Amino acid sequence: MKKFEKEKNKQRIKFTGYFIVECEGEGRRRKGGLTLLWKDSIDVTVSSFSSNHVDDRVSSRLQRQWRFSVIYGHPDTEKEYKTRMLMESLRGDCDEPLLCRGDLNLMLHSGEKQGGQEFDVEEADILRNAVAHCQLEDLGYIGHEFTWSNNRGGEENIQERLDRFMANRAWRDTFKGSFVSHLTKRKSNHLPILLCIKDTPSA
Question: What InterPro entries does the annotation carry (predicted)?
């Protein structure tokens, strides 16, 4: 995306800061891409990034610094193990508050899948092991139980929960009362998910 297009879009949606990992390919063959946007009420410093993640540190007027890792899981089955490796490489110090937002292309249990092929326990173990290693906990949600659909009808319809917010104990203790909502999708095959953070003064 050219610089003037980035500035135009930033002004249109009224954010003051942005960080973009460009898509791969061109036209309809484009895939991937990550965008991080923020307003001037917080400070954001990007620590590392790749085509599958952006890891940054966030601070506000009320709270000490915390980490926010955005992860796009490898969509190819033979590369799913790389999602675990990426998550584990970003673990860091467990005493530091860590929030993880992911379109992980993996599920934790059979209740997160409806339709299609039988739930794959071995694939789920990839995410379970990564979550355990990083000492993360799923933040749950309000709303529809699945976040992705193949948008087909009848018996061909498949729905899965591929998107989630997770956090370690330090983050959950810092932002008590925060919650996640699954919103209504429009043209995308993914639901937008919204995390409402309860930002209160540190003790």
Answer: Endo/exonu/phosph_ase_sf
CA triple 140-123-125, angle to 5 deg: 65
Query: Which candidate, 77, 95, 74, 86, places its Cα nearest to that of 31?
Result: 74
Q: What is the pLDDT of residue 185?
A: 83
**103 - beta bridge partners?**
72, 163
Dihedral pair phi/psi, residue 10, rounded to 5°: -60, -45
In this structure, are residues 119 and 159 in contact, taking their beta carbons and an 8 Å threshold?
Answer: no
Q: Choose among 92, 190, 195: nearest CA to 139.
A: 195
Domains of the chain (ranges, CATH numbers): 41-196 (3.60.10.10)
Q: Which two tokens stand for residue 169?
A: 């104990």
3-class DSSP state of 72: strand
Contact by Cβ (8 Å): 58, 44: yes
* Low-confidence stretches of the chain (pLDDT beneath 50): 1-2, 4
Cα dist from 77 to 33, 73, 80, whole Å? 19, 10, 5
Q: Are the CB atoms for 171 and 99 separated by under 8 Å?
A: yes
